[in-house]
Amino acid sequence: MFFTKSKSVAVSKEDALKGRDTPLEIERAHFVNGHDMKGNFPEGSEVVYFGLGCFWGAERRFWQLEGVWVTAVGYGAGFTPNPTYEEVCTGQTGHNELVMVVFEPSKLSLDDLLKVFWEAHDPTQGNRQGNDVGTQYRSGIYTTSDAQQAFVRASLEKYQAALSAKGVGTITTEVKRFDNFYYAETYHQQYLAKNPGGYCGLSGTNVLYC
Fold it and tell me: DSSP string covering 96-133, please?
């Protein structure tokens, strides 16, 4: 019964899967740098969450940056508590595949992260990225402060102007304050470091953010 609605149509809170009370258990150490994905972040660090398609390739774009303390992938901006990957794939949890990015502003700015975000995917595609179709692949930025929120909205307008100048379409990126994030199963964390030949469907517009 989970597949009666199109995966590209957002599910309502009332119709979302019920989920569970207990979080999924994961290995806390980041596979690449060993940092704790669930805490012990440096003083002064900030957190922001990005959705830009399949989170395997998206996470790799961010953990490689100098100034990023740790990354993790998970499910957020939806309704179902503690969902599994299989549930999210039905489109009936309301969640987006997200990358949590913990960064040190003294070493890396939010604008630097946004440049990677905008250029790494096509933010005009709605509920899809390339061949990956569904609301869980929507473009989204989920901020953790009012300052971040204001900066991201200005960044969106800036990149829209760049896209429009090149004849590219309208940005569909969801920009919201952070609401929820559930860590994905351990095998998804830093997937492309564990599986170097694994799938990555990210493809940008070739329009620079500057």
Answer: EEEEEEEE-TTTS-HHHHHHHHHHHS-TTSSSEETTEE
